């Protein structure tokens, strides 16, 4: 097997309704998933501010990749798994991305 460089990209969509996580390799999107704020009773508070994309690059020799997403506490965790092992992880807190509960 050969080593491949993967980039885990976390970004917010326009309009600010969801977070998209992508795994990219050689300019191709290998895996993708999204998390809608409304599914968790949340909304984004925006005043001409948009959170920066988050990028984590990792090189690995794996046969399979998968994205794992979970809501934990007051934030979301996104993990890039390679052959079932964590290769990269990003955690986004509600405070960092100005996300609040809808009452």
3D architecture notes:
By secondary structure, the chain is mainly β. It contains no helices and 9 strands. It has strands spanning 4-12, 18-25, 28-36, 42-44, 54-60, 65-71, 75-82, 85-93, 99-101. Strands 3-2-1-5 form a 4-stranded antiparallel sheet, with no helix packed on it. Strands 6-7-8 form a 3-stranded antiparallel sheet, with no helix packed on it. The protein has a two-stranded antiparallel sheet with strand order 4-9.
State the gist of this model.
By secondary structure, this protein is an all-beta fold. The chain has strands spanning 4-12, 18-25, 28-36, 42-44, 54-60, 65-71, 75-82, 85-93, 99-101.
Task: Write a concise keyword list for the protein shown above.
three-stranded antiparallel sheet, elongated, mainly beta, 0% helix
User: What level of helicity do the residues show?
Assistant: under 10%
Average per-residue pLDDT, rounded, comes to: 94
Structural class: mainly beta
Order of helical and strand elements: EEEEEEEEE
Please report which band the strand proportion falls in: under 5%, 5-15%, 15-25%, 25-35%, 35-45% or over 45%.
over 45%
Unreliable stretches: none
* Sheet with most strands: 4 strands, antiparallel
What is the general shape? elongated
Strand order of the largest sheet: 3-2-1-5
Rg calculated over all Cα atoms: 14 Å
How many runs of DSSP E, i.e. beta strands? 9
Number of helices: 0
How far is the N terminus from the C terminus? 51 Å
Task: Present the secondary structure layout.
Elements: E1 4-12, E2 18-25, E3 28-36, E4 42-44, E5 54-60, E6 65-71, E7 75-82, E8 85-93, E9 99-101
Antiparallel strand pairs: 1-2, 1-5, 2-3, 4-9, 6-7, 7-8
């Amino acid at each position: 097997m050969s080593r491949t460089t993967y980039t885990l990209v976390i970004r917010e969509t326009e309009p600010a309704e969801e977070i998209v996580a992508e795994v990219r390799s050689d300019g191709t999107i290998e895996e993708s998933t999204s998390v809608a704020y409304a599914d968790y009773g949340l909304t984004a508070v925006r005043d001409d501010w948009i959170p920066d994309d988050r990028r984590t690059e990792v090189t690995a020799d794996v046969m399979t990749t998968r994205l794992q997403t979970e809501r934990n506490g007051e934030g979301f965790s996104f993990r890039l798994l390679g052959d079932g092992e964590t290769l990269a992880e990003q955690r986004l807190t509600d405070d960092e991305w100005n996300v609040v509960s809808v009452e």
